[in-house]
Every structure is written in structure tokens, then in C-alpha cells.
């Protein structure tokens, strides 16, 4: 039986759009409200692991995404000073066999474009330029208030509005961000600028993830946009830069200087951009509450995490699939139970990943000596250590609480 409720999704990011796609396919009336006046190229690279790609494949969305993504054939770890590879693991087909689905690196805007195209192509309603500034819930429903003064009523509101979520404030109350004491420089380098860097060992037909752990800082890099661009995130200790925005402009020269003495590949990546963003890295303590009777949180609004496990987008995908499964078939009198079921399924896993992401920074930034040796030993066991993340299938979680 179709759900006879009206769902308003606040935020047209990855989690919000995917939630809307699945709900609409399941017969649920849904509208997505996005504050931006248009969907643009804002953002940087991200990774879609097997735990996310298996879900996109079931929904018939992975093939379109793969056309604009990159499928790395290996992951390799380099010494910070010399650039020497000290640990590597095959990916590509080997990863698929181990975890049951592919691994892709992709530009966030490309993922959003694929999902928006699928949603709109199937008749979905997306309203742009609609900044939600308040939500009020009562027994009869939820009222959304927008910056232009307009108001909309819905039976259920999904807060997919990111780390600065308005819906979260209504559901869980105000919270305090936890500053990591670090900031990240993000950039996209045209691949042609890297072909002349012999130390990189660049092979267009054998794309790789490059990680450079080092004392007090680290850099991760991988190709996106079909291989035309190389994305990087360089994390440095920084207690002065506290702006929690991943699109704030930084200075290229400062990024290069922060890695003085590092190998030529790192310096080529950092110096190869025309513009660089600088992002103070925060997360939140795991929330005790994700939902009310008619409102629910998803993605970064529910479980903001540091980027050191590469799971932000994947967890939003998992959220979307579980939430849609829980809401499907729930009549108006069962919405609160459906939202509680979703929260029960998702909170333990996302809490574990939030904490694991914190620990990973310590691993990647270990000082030379015994701590770095222990890190190297851990990295040699990386596929086994990551199985709990990448081999996971959230469909099993839903079945357990059915």
C-alpha cells in the first residue's frame, strides 16, 4: 500500500536527492527544497565505496555515475619525505571481489547531477532557491518557513540540510561543534599539469589513490571527473582557521608552505591549482536523538564526521535507503514508529564511523618512529580492517528490525 503522506526533503545533496528518488518510486508524495538557486559545480572529490555503490546499483543509478567517475586500480601509501611507496593494495576487480561492489572516486557535483537527473526525469519535484529558516511541528504536521516568507505544510520533514542544519535544531536542539584543531586544503588539479612530474608515476590507464601520511599532517589524492582532474585534501594542524565551510577560499602559497620539506609529488599537487579552498575540520558528538514524531535527520545533519574514513557520502546513501524502506508502507498513524525504526537501525553504525574517523587522523599523522611503524603495520592489513565498512549491506540491518 502506498504511503499517504506528504514528505518534504530539505536539501538537494546526495542524501536528500536519493531519499526522494526511492520514496517517489515507492509511491510516496515528496518535494525537495534546496536553498541554492541552481545546482552548480561547487564541491570537490569524494569516494563511493562498495557499501554505497551496491545500493546505487540496485537502484539502477550506478551505471550513469560510473560514466563520470574513476575506478582506481590500486591504493598506495608514500613516505612523506622521499615519496617512496611503502605499502600498496590492489583495487579494481580485486576490491570488487572482496567487498561485492565497485569503488569509485567522483566529483560531488557529478553525483548530484546524476541523482537530480534521475529524480527530475522520473517526474520528481525540486524547488530551488528555497532556503528553509524554520520548522514547526504539531500533531497535525510540520510547517516549513522559507527565507522569502513563504510557508509549506508537510506530514513528514527530512532534514538533509547538512552540517548547519535548521531541521536538526528543531529536532535535537542546538549543539556545539567539536573542533579537531586541524584544517584541510582542498583542490582540483587538471591532470595535464601532473603528467610532467616523474615522481608521480602517473599512468592514465591505471588510476590510483595516493596517500601521504606524515608527522602532524597528511595528504590524500585521487582522480575524478572521468580522470580529467585530480582531487586532493591536505590536512594540517591549525588552531587559528576556524571557519566551518568547505568552500572558503584559501591561499595556495600557504598550502605549499605548510608542506615544506615534503616530496615533489605533494608540492606539485598543492602548487598545481589555480584556487584552493580551506576548511576547518569539525564534527559533532553523536546525537542522542535523530527524530521526532514527524521530523527526521539524514546525512551530515544527523552524523557529521571528519573526512578521514571517506564515508560521508556513503553514509548519506545508506541513510537514504534505510529511511525510504522504513517509511514505505507506513500510514500517517505509523510515521513516528517508522522514523524511530530508521534511527534505531542507523545510529549505532554512524556513531562507530564518527569515532573511527577521529582515530584515523591520528593514524595518518603519526610522528616518525615507533608510532609510524605501528601505523605502517596497520596499513598492511587495510582491506581486512575495512571490511566492516565496505562489505556492509544496510538491507540486512533493515531486515533485522522488520
UniProtKB/TrEMBL annotation:
FAD-binding domain location: 5-353
Q: Which SUPFAM superfamilies match?
A: FAD-linked reductases, C-terminal domain (SSF54373), FAD/NAD(P)-binding domain (SSF51905)
Gene3D superfamilies on file: FAD/NAD(P)-binding domain
Q: Name one GO molecular function term.
A: monooxygenase activity
Q: Where is the signal peptide?
A: none
**Keywords per UniProt:** FAD, Flavoprotein, Monooxygenase, Oxidoreductase
Query: Where does this protein have coiled-coil stretches?
Result: none
Q: Which domain of life is it from?
A: Bacteria
Cofactors demanded by this protein: FAD
Cross-referenced PANTHER family: GERANYLGERANYL DIPHOSPHATE REDUCTASE, MONOOXYGENASE
Q: Per its record, how is this protein called by name? A: Salicylate hydroxylase
User: What's the source species for this entry?
Assistant: Goodfellowiella coeruleoviolacea
Amino acid at each position: 500500500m502506498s504511503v499517504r503522506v506528504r514528505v518534504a526533503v530539505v536539501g538537494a545533496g546526495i542524501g536528500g536527492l536519493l531519499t526522494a528518488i526511492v520514496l517517489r518510486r515507492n509511491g510516496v508524495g515528496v518535494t525537495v527544497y534546496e536553498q541554492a538557486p541552481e545546482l552548480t559545480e561547487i564541491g570537490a572529490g569524494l569516494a563511493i565505496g562498495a557499501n554505497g555503490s551496491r545500493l546505487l546499483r540496485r537502484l539502477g543509478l550506478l551505471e550513469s555515475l560510473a560514466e563520470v567517475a574513476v575506478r582506481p586500480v590500486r591504493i598506495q601509501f608514500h613516505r612523506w619525505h622521499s615519496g617512496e611507496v611503502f605499502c600498496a593494495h590492489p583495487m579494481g576487480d580485486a576490491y570488487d571481489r572482496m567487498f561485492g561492489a565497485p569503488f569509485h572516486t567522483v566529483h560531488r557535483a557529478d553525483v548530484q547531477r546524476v541523482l537530480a537527473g534521475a529524480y527530475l526525469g522520473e517526474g520528481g519535484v525540486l524547488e530551488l532557491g528555497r532556503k528553509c529558516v524554520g520548522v514547526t511541528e504539531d500533531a497535525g504536521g510540520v510547517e516549513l518557513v522559507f527565507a522569502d516568507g513563504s510557508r509549506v505544510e508537510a506530514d513528514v520533514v527530512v532534514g538533509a540540510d547538512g552540517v548547519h542544519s535548521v531541521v536538526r535544531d528543531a529536532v535535537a536542539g542546538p549543539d556545539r561543534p567539536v573542533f579537531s584543531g586541524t584544517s584541510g586544503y582542498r583542490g582540483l588539479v587538471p591532470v595535464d599539469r601532473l603528467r610532467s612530474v616523474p615522481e608521480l608515476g602517473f599512468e592514465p590507464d591505471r588510476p590510483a589513490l595516493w596517500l601521504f601520511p606524515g608527522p602532524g599532517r597528511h595528504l590524500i589524492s585521487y582522480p575524478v571527473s572521468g580522470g580529467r582532474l585530480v582531487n586532493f585534501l591536505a590536512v594540517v594542524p591549525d588552531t587559528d582557521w576556524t571557519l566551518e565551510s568547505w568552500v572558503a577560499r584559501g591561499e595556495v602559497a600557504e598550502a605549499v608552505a605548510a608542506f615544506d620539506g615534503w616530496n615533489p609529488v605533494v608540492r606539485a599537487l598543492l602548487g598545481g591549482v589555480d584556487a584552493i579552498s580551506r576548511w576547518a575540520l569539525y564534527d559533532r558528538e553523536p546525537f542522542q536523538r535523530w527524530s521526532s514524531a514527524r521530523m527526521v535527520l539524514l546525512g551530515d545533519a544527523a552524523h557529521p564526521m571528519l573526512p578521514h574514513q571517506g564515508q560521508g557520502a556513503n553514509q548519506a546513501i545508506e541513510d537514504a535507503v534505510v529511511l525510504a524502506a522504513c517509511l514505505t508502507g507506513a500510514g500517517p498513524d505509523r510515521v513516528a514508529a517508522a522514523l524511530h525504526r530508521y534511527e534505531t537501525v542507523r545510529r549505532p553504525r554512524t556513531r562507530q564511523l564518527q569515532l573511527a574517523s577521529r582515530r584515523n587522523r591520528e593514524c595518518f599523522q603519526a610522528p616518525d618512529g615507533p608510532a609510524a611503524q605501528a601505523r605502517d603495520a596497520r596499513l598492511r592489513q587495510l582491506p581486512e580492517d575495512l571490511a566492516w565498512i565496505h562489505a556492509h549491506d544496510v538491507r540486512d540491518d533493515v531486515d533485522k528490525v522488520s
